[in-house]
């Protein structure tokens, strides 16, 4: 039990020097990627930039001890930053409290084994949300690329104001921002097409591969460093055509409880009011955080051939958010981009996260004065480069080809997320739920005609489908000439509830009024036990379809020789 709750005990006794070397390399590489991303994602969240760094180290430390996937790295992400922007109202106190409450909810879900709730968020809803988020976040950064000030955050107003004021574009910001975007895109493409150097190749070739791979992997850090040097050069020359990040407080955040109230100009906002203000965010933020983390962990565990414990992942993320709130972190989750960098760097254990976290702490302690010269256009380019791949244009074509009905939750989520993120997610889940309930309430039904009607459900039988089944059976049994008794093939039914039992009893009584009977065949043990316990009057069941055929032949009017045939076959959907 201790090894299950503390996964570090599984790999720590076997830790070796080769593992240490690879973990150090991977941790440093992820850190070089994560530090500039942390600054950029704080901008997306609408918080001072230091809060991105405050959110980037505690998750690394906690996951090292509690996580079950060697590749996963926790920290701020584009999706979570967008959600924080919607629910924290650009107030650090709200963002930190949201991290604490989200962590508590995630811990409770882990302890109560409620991770199955994530299964109700369908793939079309996730794709619709991430695609809309990609567009929203990218356009939110256009103002920084163009050097525009005072642009509202609401998406449609943002588009209108940006287009209206495009003539106010600062040339320096635009040139630098577009140049950074081009460099980032080029390095990304270079990395994806880079052939791996074989061991037997000359040292120069392997060294060249390492240099190019490192440059492409740490492209965010290189671009931000280059842009900072350009801005510093202009500052030294006495002219500054770029919009700079500005001062960032130096030093580590204090370790303290999050604030449960907030001072406001007209008084104090109590804890209850803060919770009411965050509203549905207290469900959306922890659920989306869990979904992102578990999905990433499963993907990389499958890719690298190891197993994870999804429930332990919930606990690890919950602890990371709770403890993170003690160091002024906003909600964090698994990062797909940094996790991919971690895996490609050859990480062997979650200990690589310790190196990443240490690098963030060093940046906070000693490098924040240098962040003053980072141009906002460069950070905007980093964000846009990170979120553009999240837009999946092919999903629309795929769903049109595979199942067009799934386009409904996809499009509902996608379109409403431009209005408000929470409306898009909630509406998408509701539409997916309605489609799921409809398929349960209207299962496919097959009717085989013989001396009796054999009725077979194509899926399990739940109480919403009972009325549909009763109407279909009665209409077919009474429409036959002469009217025929019914055998219900239950091979696909694994469980039933009381409402179904009552419905079956009423169906039997209705058939009996017309001199017909209802029997069952191929009952699974749990269903048979329920029906026997219900003590239905005149209950008949047969172990197999063949036994039911003999029952059909013995019916009045039957000659006992005609087997069931598929003379009539219908889905019976209304």
Automatic annotation (TrEMBL):
<dbReference type="InterPro" id="IPR011547">
    <property type="entry name" value="SLC26A/SulP_dom"/>
</dbReference>
<keyword id="KW-1003">Cell membrane</keyword>
<dbReference type="InterPro" id="IPR002645">
    <property type="entry name" value="STAS_dom"/>
</dbReference>
<protein>
    <recommendedName>
        <fullName>Sodium-independent sulfate anion transporter</fullName>
    </recommendedName>
</protein>
<feature type="region of interest" description="Disordered">
    <location>
        <begin position="549"/>
        <end position="574"/>
    </location>
</feature>
<dbReference type="GO" id="GO:0016324">
    <property type="term" value="C:apical plasma membrane"/>
</dbReference>
<dbReference type="InterPro" id="IPR001902">
    <property type="entry name" value="SLC26A/SulP_fam"/>
</dbReference>
<comment type="function">
    <text>Sodium-independent anion exchanger mediating bicarbonate, chloride, sulfate and oxalate transport. Exhibits sodium-independent sulfate anion transporter activity that may cooperate with SLC26A2 to mediate DIDS-sensitive sulfate uptake into high endothelial venules endothelial cells (HEVEC). In the kidney, mediates chloride-bicarbonate exchange, facilitating V-ATPase-mediated acid secretion. May function as a chloride channel, playing an important role in moderating chloride homeostasis and neuronal activity in the cerebellum.</text>
</comment>
<feature type="transmembrane region" description="Helical">
    <location>
        <begin position="93"/>
        <end position="118"/>
    </location>
</feature>
<keyword id="KW-0458">Lysosome</keyword>
<feature type="transmembrane region" description="Helical">
    <location>
        <begin position="51"/>
        <end position="72"/>
    </location>
</feature>
<feature type="transmembrane region" description="Helical">
    <location>
        <begin position="280"/>
        <end position="301"/>
    </location>
</feature>
<feature type="transmembrane region" description="Helical">
    <location>
        <begin position="210"/>
        <end position="234"/>
    </location>
</feature>
<feature type="transmembrane region" description="Helical">
    <location>
        <begin position="313"/>
        <end position="332"/>
    </location>
</feature>
<dbReference type="Pfam" id="PF00916">
    <property type="entry name" value="Sulfate_transp"/>
</dbReference>
<keyword id="KW-0813">Transport</keyword>
<comment type="similarity">
    <text>Belongs to the SLC26A/SulP transporter (TC 2.A.53) family.</text>
</comment>
<feature type="transmembrane region" description="Helical">
    <location>
        <begin position="412"/>
        <end position="438"/>
    </location>
</feature>
<dbReference type="Pfam" id="PF01740">
    <property type="entry name" value="STAS"/>
</dbReference>
<dbReference type="GO" id="GO:0015698">
    <property type="term" value="P:inorganic anion transport"/>
</dbReference>
<feature type="transmembrane region" description="Helical">
    <location>
        <begin position="352"/>
        <end position="372"/>
    </location>
</feature>
<keyword id="KW-0812">Transmembrane</keyword>
<dbReference type="GO" id="GO:0008509">
    <property type="term" value="F:monoatomic anion transmembrane transporter activity"/>
</dbReference>
<dbReference type="InterPro" id="IPR036513">
    <property type="entry name" value="STAS_dom_sf"/>
</dbReference>
<keyword id="KW-0472">Membrane</keyword>
<keyword id="KW-1133">Transmembrane helix</keyword>
<feature type="compositionally biased region" description="Polar residues">
    <location>
        <begin position="563"/>
        <end position="574"/>
    </location>
</feature>
<feature type="transmembrane region" description="Helical">
    <location>
        <begin position="379"/>
        <end position="400"/>
    </location>
</feature>
<dbReference type="GO" id="GO:0005765">
    <property type="term" value="C:lysosomal membrane"/>
</dbReference>
<keyword id="KW-0039">Anion exchange</keyword>
<feature type="domain" description="STAS">
    <location>
        <begin position="451"/>
        <end position="536"/>
    </location>
</feature>
<dbReference type="GO" id="GO:0016323">
    <property type="term" value="C:basolateral plasma membrane"/>
</dbReference>
<dbReference type="GO" id="GO:0098660">
    <property type="term" value="P:inorganic ion transmembrane transport"/>
</dbReference>
<dbReference type="GO" id="GO:0015297">
    <property type="term" value="F:antiporter activity"/>
</dbReference>
<keyword id="KW-0406">Ion transport</keyword>
């Amino acid at each position: 039990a201790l090894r299950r709750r503390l996964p570090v005990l599984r790999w720590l006794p076997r830790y070796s020097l080769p593992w240490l070397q690879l973990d150090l390399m991977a941790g440093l590489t992820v850190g070089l990627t994560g530090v500039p991303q942390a600054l950029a994602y704080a901008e997306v969240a609408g918080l001072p930039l230091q809060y991105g760094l405050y959110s980037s180290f505690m998750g690394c430390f906690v996951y090292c001890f509690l996580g079950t996937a060697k590749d996963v790295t926790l920290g701020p992400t584009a999706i979570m930053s967008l959600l924080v922007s919607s629910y924290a109202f650009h107030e650090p106190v709200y963002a930190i409290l949201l991290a604490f409450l989200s962590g508590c909810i995630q811990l409770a879900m882990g302890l109560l084994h409620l991770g199955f709730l994530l299964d109700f968020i369908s793939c079309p809803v996730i794709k619709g949300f991430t695609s809309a988020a990609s567009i929203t976040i990218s356009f939110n950064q256009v103002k920084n690329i163009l050097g525009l000030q005072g642009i509202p955050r609401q998406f449609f107003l943002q588009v209108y104001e940006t287009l209206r004021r495009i003539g106010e574009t600062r040339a320096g910001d635009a040139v630098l921002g577009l140049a950074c975007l081009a460099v980032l895109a080029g390095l990304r493409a270079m990395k994806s097409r880079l052939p791996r150097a074989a061991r037997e190749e000359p040292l120069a070739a392997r060294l060249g591969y390492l240099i190019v791979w490192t440059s492409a992997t740490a492209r965010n850090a290189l671009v931000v460093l280059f842009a900072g040097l350009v801005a510093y050069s202009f500052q030294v020359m006495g002219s500054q055509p770029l919009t700079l990040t500005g001062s960032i407080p130096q030093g580590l955040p204090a370790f303290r409880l999050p604030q449960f109230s907030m001072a406001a100009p007209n008084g104090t906002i109590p804890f209850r009011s803060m919770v009411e203000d965050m509203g549905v965010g207290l469900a959306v933020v922890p659920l989306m955080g869990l979904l992102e983390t578990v999905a990433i962990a499963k993907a990389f565990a499958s890719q690298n051939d190891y197993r994870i414990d999804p429930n332990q992942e919930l606990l690890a993320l919950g602890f990371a958010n709770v403890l993170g709130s003690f160091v002024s972190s906003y909600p964090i989750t698994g990062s797909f981009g940094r996790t991919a960098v971690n895996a490609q760097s050859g990480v062997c254990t979650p200990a690589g996260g310790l190196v990443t976290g240490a690098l963030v702490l060093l940046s906070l302690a000693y490098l924040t004065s240098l962040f003053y010269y980072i141009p906002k256009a460069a950070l905007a380019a980093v964000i846009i480069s990170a979120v553009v791949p999240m837009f999946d244009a092919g999903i629309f074509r795929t769903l049109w080809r595979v199942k067009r009905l799934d386009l409904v939750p996809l499009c509902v989520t996608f379109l409403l997320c431009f209005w408000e993120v929470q409306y898009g997610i909630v509406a998408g889940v509701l539409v997916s739920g309605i489609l799921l309930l409809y398929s349960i309430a209207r299962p496919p039904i097959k009717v085989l005609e013989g001396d009796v009607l054999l009725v077979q459900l194509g899926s399990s039988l739940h109480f919403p489908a009972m009325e549909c089944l009763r109407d279909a059976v009665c209409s077919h049994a009474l429409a036959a000439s002469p009217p025929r008794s019914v055998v219900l093939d239950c091979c696909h039914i694994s469980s039933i509830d009381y409402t179904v039992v009552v419905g079956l009893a009423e169906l039997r009584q209705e058939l009996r009024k017309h001199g017909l009977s209802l029997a069952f065949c191929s009952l699974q043990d749990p269903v048979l036990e329920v029906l026997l316990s219900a003590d239905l009057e005149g209950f008949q069941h047969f172990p197999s379809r063949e036994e039911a055929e003999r029952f059909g032949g013995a019916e009045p009017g039957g000659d006992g020789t005609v087997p069931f045939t598929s003379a009539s076959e219908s889905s019976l959907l209304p």
